[in-house]
Here is the input.
Amino acid sequence: MTDRPGEPKTGSDKPADAIVLTDLKKQFGDLVAVDKVSFSVKSGELFGLLGPNGAGKTTIINMLTTLLIPTSGDAVIAGFDIRKDPDSVRNNIGIIFQDPSLDIGLTGRENLEFHAIMYNIEAVERKKRIAEVLSVVQLADKADTLVEYYSGGMKRRLEIARGLLHYPKVLFLDEPTLGLDAQTRRSIWDYIRNLNREYQTTVILTTHYMEEANFLCDRIAIIDHGKIIALDTPADLKAGYQGDVITLVTEGPVDHLIARLEEVSWVQEIVSGNGSLSFTVPCGEENLPEIFHLVHTLGVTVRSVSLRKPSLEDVFIHLTGSTIREQDGTRRAAMREKFRRRMMR
Ligand SMILES: Nc1ncnc2c1ncn2[C@@H]1O[C@H](COP(=O)(O)OP(=O)(O)OP(=O)(O)O)[C@@H](O)[C@H]1O
Ligand SMILES: [Mg+2]
Here is the structure.
């Protein structure tokens, strides 16, 4: 490639921060969906917004991509103010929406052509860029197949290609791998990482998946109820959460064990369900014998025990008091089903 996605099209200096939010707020009636959020994303950074359903992730993305007007506060993207210069913002960003938005009655190439025409990319340049982005996502050999016959992963890759057509400086990915199987998700991660590393494209993505945020992101903002409750590198988020996590897989009722553990001052973050009981202790090796003594005294049958360092999920529980899956509930299942149906159309 000569011009690369993410490279400045003019000789102008790249801003040090690709995205700056200042007290950004969105209110729908009485509901404050995004509550005076401030953070910045460095140029070339891969940044994640991690949070449960309804946390406000898409609302933030929609405001930053000028699809939604903020109630108050401000944001600057690639040096352009979202309120004062929305057209310049749009010219410098690519968006991959949470809900699939391809025309399945067109081929992959036709979908890209349609988008390029909307962006006023002239014919010769259009052809060149379409060939480039198809090769980035390895869909060149499927370019003339109807999208209807693409797999879910191929459709998502085509959407990523479409988001890259005008060489965005900043790429917004709202739930890039929602509803995809583990293998496809992994390959999408590789594309995202490659784009970020090879072309220095600043990427901001939203996700429910801890492992996705952990694997991909340089820094993560954990968002809950419209507020950023933590922001750091995955390693530092985990390091800031001291202790070891013990998980017991048990048989029979464990209510009495939970009640006793709750009385122990050094036992924290007790989470139970599906026959397993997890909690945090200051030092696993030292505390396990005492735990075993308690388990034995109460006559609880333990099938297996594991001891591990905290994960991002543990950090999330620590910060919000509940697991991300608990908060997902039925809405998330419904959303998955909606996504799956769309992909199959
Ligand atoms: N147009 C709207 N009108 C009214 N309420 C809205 C609107 N858009 C979003 N909301 C509400 O704002 C809150 C934040 O929604 P948002 O879609 O930003 O969450 P999210 O973190 O993206 O969730 P998900 O993980 O389900 O995609 C939710 O309570 C949602 O119901
Ligand atoms: Mg969303």
Notes: The mean pLDDT is 87. Residues 57-58, 98, 174 surround magnesium ion (ligand 2) (CB under 6 Å). The CA atoms of residues 159 and 310 lie 34 Å apart. The longest strand covers residues 17-28.
